[in-house]
């Protein structure tokens, strides 16, 4: 009987590259939208880049969005025309550069008052104009019959018609993984499960950081000409590593979404409610054959790695949805509920979080630590470009042009409409994954994913844990939390085979995932 050789752990080579004795041009702390965008921007300019992520790529806010690539209709209503124009421009670029991840989606604003359609129609024509030549499709009025054809579950009573406009939709965590692959394609190095535990200072200047390997506990020091703090809602924690008495930059705000079956929104459009009872907008968006409904805006005193939805937030979403949908989802219909934290930059006393700017902010400390925060997924590329411009100037790096506006991201290909959503997001990698063992073996009857995708996640996408796989490489946790818990033992077994782990490791992984995913289930 021959024994199977222990597989080579892909992390070994990445850790070796990260700890090679050299001075990086740029060290980026944080593996969400802003950190990955900054790292890709720097690597494509030819700078030597290392990114360190404390948990996993897009573990925080960057995997918990409303799944929209959009200009922000609400920001237009607030009068922030420049932010909307920039976001619409970036929306157009992202659709061109990642066609396997971004697609057009129609959004219906239902009109139940005689004045609603002309009122919102005028605003959305301005939205079209601001997008310029990168506009997706022109907004237009639809009558009652056309509105119901696109969204059959809309409440019919008193419906006058509506306005149909177009924005982009995407898979946030899959874009993060795609940026990771793009970074690696251009010679950058990124390591997850590698929390930064301290900054290195020489002569009053920040010259690097110390990080801990989350799997072995071993600490390493890395040097860099510039250090970027792109840790989202946790930027103040890193800033305090340099100066414990620094004033906080952020006012964290929580946004909650619920996920329900597609039958509640069976047409080919999303719904946008322009003004809820608390003055926010609410979306119901088709996504991976489910529907995402949200969001809320709840100020929080501090950030947490695993924020939890408050009962009143879930109640608000379901109550608002019931004003527009028939039948409307109830608590029993919720497959998953998730919460994300917005890194909103502090404003004057008394300003509510829903009116705080979504613009990104770059601050440089006396010691040279570059902090990037604020912003949103749609403008991730512009955030990275602005940050690298500042970092290169500060560190005296050779001046190089930005290439990312026209950069095709890893796997970019015209979407194959014959493929299911979960295959389409891999782009040109799809055939390679489908050639792996288990491509026809479903992980769970209520989930679209296969065993081959788990193997790929480990071999090519730096997945290390059951959570990494089921939450972010696959979107099982958000689509159906209970089914994902039932799939966890099989995922743990595949991971153990790939990484050479024992039965005790598998059991610990399943326990940890079951506890985490329980927070996404409505009891």
Automatic annotation (TrEMBL):
The keyword Transferase does not apply. Its cofactor is FAD. Keywords: FAD, Flavoprotein, Glycerol metabolism, Oxidoreductase. Residues 417-504 form the Alpha-glycerophosphate oxidase C-terminal domain. The keyword Oxidoreductase applies. Residues 25-379 form the FAD dependent oxidoreductase domain. Gene3D superfamilies: Alpha-glycerophosphate oxidase, cap domain, D-Amino Acid Oxidase, subunit A, domain 2, FAD/NAD(P)-binding domain. Belongs to the FAD-dependent glycerol-3-phosphate dehydrogenase family. This is Glycerol-3-phosphate dehydrogenase. It comes from Deinococcus knuensis.
């Amino acid at each position: 009987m021959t024994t199977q050789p222990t597989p080579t752990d892909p992390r070994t080579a990445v850790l070796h590259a990260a700890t090679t004795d050299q001075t990086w041009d740029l060290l980026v702390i944080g593996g969400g939208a802003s950190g990955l965008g900054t790292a890709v921007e720097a690597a494509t300019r030819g700078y030597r880049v290392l990114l360190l992520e404390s948990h996993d790529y897009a573990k925080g806010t960057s995997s918990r969005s409303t799944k929209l690539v959009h200009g922000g209709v609400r920001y237009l209503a607030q009068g922030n025309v420049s932010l909307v124009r920039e976001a619409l421009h970036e929306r157009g670029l992202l659709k061109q550069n990642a066609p396997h991840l971004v697609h057009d989606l129609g959004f219906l604003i239902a009109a139940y008052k005689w004045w609603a359609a002309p009122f919102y129609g005028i605003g959305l024509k301005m939205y079209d104009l601001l997008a310029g030549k990168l506009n997706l499709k022109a907004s237009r009025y639809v009558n009652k019959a056309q509105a119901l054809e696109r969204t059959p579950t809309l409440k019919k009573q008193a419906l006058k018609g509506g306005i149909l406009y177009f924005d982009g939709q995407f898979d946030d965590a899959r874009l993060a993984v795609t940026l990771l692959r793009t970074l690696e394609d251009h010679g950058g190095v990124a390591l997850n499960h590698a929390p930064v535990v301290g900054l290195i200072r020489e002569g009053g200047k920040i010259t690097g950081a110390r990080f801990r390997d989350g799997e072995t506990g071993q600490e390493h020091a890395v040097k860099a000409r510039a250090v970027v703090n792109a840790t989202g809602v946790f930027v103040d924690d890193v800033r305090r590593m340099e100066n414990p008495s620094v004033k906080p930059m952020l006012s964290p705000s929580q946004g909650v979404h619920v996920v329900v079956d597609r039958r509640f929104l069976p047409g080919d459009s999303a719904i946008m409610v322009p003004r809820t009872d608390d003055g926010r907008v609410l979306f119901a968006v088709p996504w991976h054959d489910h529907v995402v409904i949200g969001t809320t805006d709840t100020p929080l005193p501090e950030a947490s790695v695993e924020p939890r939805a408050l009962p009143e937030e879930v109640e608000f979403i379901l109550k608002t949805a019931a004003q527009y949908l028939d039948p409307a989802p109830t608590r029993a219909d919720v497959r998953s509920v998730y919460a994300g934290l917005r890194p909103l930059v502090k404003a004057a006393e008394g300003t509510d979080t829903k009116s705080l700017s979504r613009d990104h902010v770059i601050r440089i400390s006396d010691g040279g630590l570059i902090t990037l925060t604020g912003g949103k997924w749609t403008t991730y590329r512009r955030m990275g470009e602005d940050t690298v411009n500042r970092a290169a100037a500060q560190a005296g790096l050779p001046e190089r042009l930005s290439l990312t506006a026209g950069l095709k991201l890893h796997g970019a290909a015209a979407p194959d409409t014959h493929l299911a959503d979960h295959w389409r997001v891999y782009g040109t990698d799809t055939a390679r994954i489908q050639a792996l063992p288990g491509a026809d073996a479903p992980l769970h009857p209520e989930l679209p994913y296969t065993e081959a995708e788990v193997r790929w996640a480990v071999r090519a996408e730096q997945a290390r844990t059951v959570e990494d796989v089921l939450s972010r490489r696959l979107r099982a946790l958000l689509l159906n939390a209970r089914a994902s818990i039932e799939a966890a033992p099989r995922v743990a077994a595949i991971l153990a085979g790939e990484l050479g782990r024992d039965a005790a490791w598998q059991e610990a992984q399943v326990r940890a995932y079951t506890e985490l995913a329980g927070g996404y289930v409505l009891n």
